[in-house]
Amino acid sequence: MDVAVWVVTGVLATVFAFAGANKIVMARDKLLAAPGGGWVGDFDQGFVKTLGGLEVLGAVGLVLPGLVGVATSLVPAAAVGLGLVMVGAAIVEVRRGEPAHALLNLLYLALAVFVVWGRLGPAPLG
């Protein structure tokens, strides 16, 4: 079970690190033009950059505490935080009439819930 939780954690960390870094470094017009990036036009640049920073921090929080064995309770906390981001993202996508993107966000939410369940239940870290 621990291996499965680590694999899902790694996938989530990679996805959120990549997505967050893109939000931080890419120009607004490039984000808008990206597939599924229309939501960027609904928010100001400061929010998008902050969201990117939170996603990168969440990705670090998913992996680093478990790797170093310090403050391991941050792993499920990071997964909960990223899950909440995905709930918000799914709501935005549904309101925009983009259900396929909302489903992808709900998939990431389900993976985050799996990490929380795994780390608080059958495969706790330390």
Automatic annotation (TrEMBL):
<keyword id="KW-1133">Transmembrane helix</keyword>
<dbReference type="GO" id="GO:0016020">
    <property type="term" value="C:membrane"/>
</dbReference>
<feature type="transmembrane region" description="Helical">
    <location>
        <begin position="103"/>
        <end position="120"/>
    </location>
</feature>
<feature type="transmembrane region" description="Helical">
    <location>
        <begin position="46"/>
        <end position="68"/>
    </location>
</feature>
<dbReference type="Pfam" id="PF13564">
    <property type="entry name" value="DoxX_2"/>
</dbReference>
<feature type="transmembrane region" description="Helical">
    <location>
        <begin position="6"/>
        <end position="25"/>
    </location>
</feature>
<keyword id="KW-0472">Membrane</keyword>
<feature type="transmembrane region" description="Helical">
    <location>
        <begin position="74"/>
        <end position="91"/>
    </location>
</feature>
<keyword id="KW-0812">Transmembrane</keyword>
<protein>
    <recommendedName>
        <fullName>DoxX family protein</fullName>
    </recommendedName>
</protein>
<dbReference type="InterPro" id="IPR032808">
    <property type="entry name" value="DoxX"/>
</dbReference>
